[in-house]
């Protein structure tokens, strides 16, 4: 099939094609037989588009609370009952929770099927769909069962984002701010922060999405299995994952990342790595306050840090190989004590 050149120029050997379009196009669906796994929330939208029919389809009612092996087994059982072969391509249409669990299922079925992602949320477009991490939760521990299994293709369609409520868009904006902070680009951070929560923000995000994706691709390409610099992509996420778990996943991933970035900036300042403009920190706090979320205390969050994959030691006082931001410079990985996390968390929490 003759595709137009992608808008995103990727490194040679990167395992995923990434195509960007304003609207869905049928030619981006597989030529081979394919099976659809979709988020039930976008079923009507997808069917209104009326793409070519798949071999079969499975619509799941997904949430962070349901991101478990039970949902993975549902996929595996349906595929087995249909006797799908390894010639079939799995097409995942939905947000990051769905692509995380479908990716894990595809990596397991017959030791691996090819798969594509059509991410429908901003978080999924800029983060979850890029890089090949798949995972489900194990009880209260986030992303404990997973694999590295990149999709063959990701299709980013701007029209999907137009259907999202503003809170969902803000979730993704925090992930893009994370990338700007990681890159150390103060102007980009300020531009993104100024658009947090604004109505009709989708139209202004196209270039930011592409830039964020390319920045992530560059890191992942050098460290697919998360042994080195890919850990930088977890900026703000150690605390974010603990917040999600402590709130029983009532606080969204994006909002938790926003709080986690505040903690990371506070830790960076306390180590004299960098100081961030008080006006920027105030802007983030005002935006997060507007959601009127019940942020868990440090004592509620601390137990969940024990499951974090960046924890460095098995016994004794835990420490973490943590990415910390620097103004005007790229973030760096620093060994951080639990006490440092606690001091920064309590300082940020006191402002809510």
Any overview of this molecule?
- This protein has 352 residues and is α/β, with parallel strands linked by helices.
- The chain folds into 2 domains: 145 residues, Rossmann fold, CATH 3.40.50; 184 residues, Dehydroquinate synthase-like, alpha domain, CATH 1.20.1090.
- The chain contains 13 helices and 10 strands.
- The chain has a 6-stranded parallel β-sheet. A two-stranded antiparallel ribbon has the order 6-7. Strands 9-10 form a two-stranded antiparallel sheet.
- Helix 3 links the parallel strand 4 and strand 5.
- Helix 4 runs parallel beside helix 6 and helix 4 packs parallel to helix 8.
- The longest helix has 21 residues.
- It is globular, with a radius of gyration of 20 Å.
- The N and C termini lie far apart (54 Å).
Question: Brief overview, please?
Answer:
The chain is an alpha/beta fold and about 350 residues long.
Overview features:
10 strands; disordered N terminus; six-stranded parallel beta sheet; 352 residues; 2 domains; alpha/beta; two-stranded antiparallel sheet; 13 helices; Dehydroquinate synthase-like, alpha domain; Rossmann fold
Map the helices and strands.
Elements: E1 17-21, E2 34-39, H1 43-49, E3 56-60, H2 69-81, E4 89-94, H3 96-108, E5 114-119, H4 122-128, E6 133-138, E7 141-148, E8 153-157, H5 158-161, H6 166-183, H7 186-194, H8 202-222, H9 237-246, H10 253-270, H11 278-289, H12 298-301, E9 319-326, E10 329-337, H13 338-349
Parallel strand pairs: 1-8, 2-3, 2-4, 4-5, 5-8
Antiparallel strand pairs: 6-7, 9-10
Helix pairs in contact: 2-3, 3-4, 4-6, 4-8, 6-7, 6-8, 6-10, 9-10, 10-11, 10-13
């Amino acid at each position: 099939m003759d595709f137009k050149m992608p808008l995103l120029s990727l490194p040679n050997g990167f395992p995923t094609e990434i195509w960007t379009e304003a609207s869905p196009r049928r030619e981006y669906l597989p030529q081979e037989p394919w099976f659809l796994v979709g988020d039930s929330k976008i079923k009507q939208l997808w069917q209104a588009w009326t793409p070519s029919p798949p071999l079969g389809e499975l619509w799941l009612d997904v949430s962070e609370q349901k991101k478990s092996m039970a949902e993975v087994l549902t996929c595996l059982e349906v595929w087995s009952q249909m006797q799908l072969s390894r010639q079939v391509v799995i097409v995942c249409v939905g947000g990051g929770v769905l692509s995380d669990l479908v990716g894990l299922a595809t990596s397991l079925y017959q030791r691996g099927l090819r798969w594509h992602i059509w991410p429908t949320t901003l978080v999924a477009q800029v983060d979850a769909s890029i890089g090949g991490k798949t995972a489900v939760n194990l009880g209260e521990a986030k992303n404990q069962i997973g694999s590295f299994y990149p999709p063959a293709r990701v299709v980013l369609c701007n029209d999907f984002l137009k259907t999202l409520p503003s809170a969902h868009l803000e979730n993704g904006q925090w992930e893009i701010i994370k990338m700007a902070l990681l890159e150390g680009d103060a102007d980009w951070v300020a531009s993104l922060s100024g658009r947090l929560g604004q109505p009709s923000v989708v139209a202004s995000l196209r270039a930011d999405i592409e830039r964020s994706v390319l920045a992530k691709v560059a890191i992942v390409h050098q460290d697919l299995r998360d042994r080195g610099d890919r850990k930088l992509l977890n900026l703000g996420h150690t605390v974010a994952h603990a917040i999600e778990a402590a709130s029983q996943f009532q606080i969204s991933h994006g909002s938790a990342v926003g709080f986690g970035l505040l903690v990371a900036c506070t830790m960076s300042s306390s180590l004299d790595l960098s100081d961030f403009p008080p006006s920027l920190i105030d802007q983030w706090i005002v935006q997060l306050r507007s959601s009127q979320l019940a942020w868990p205390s440090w004592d509620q969050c601390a137990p969940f840090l024990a499951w974090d994959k960046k924890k460095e030691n098995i016994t004794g006082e835990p420490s973490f190989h943590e990415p910390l931001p620097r103004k005007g410079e790229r973030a760096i990985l620093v060994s951080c004590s639990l006490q440092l996390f606690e001091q920064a968390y309590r300082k940020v929490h006191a402002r809510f």
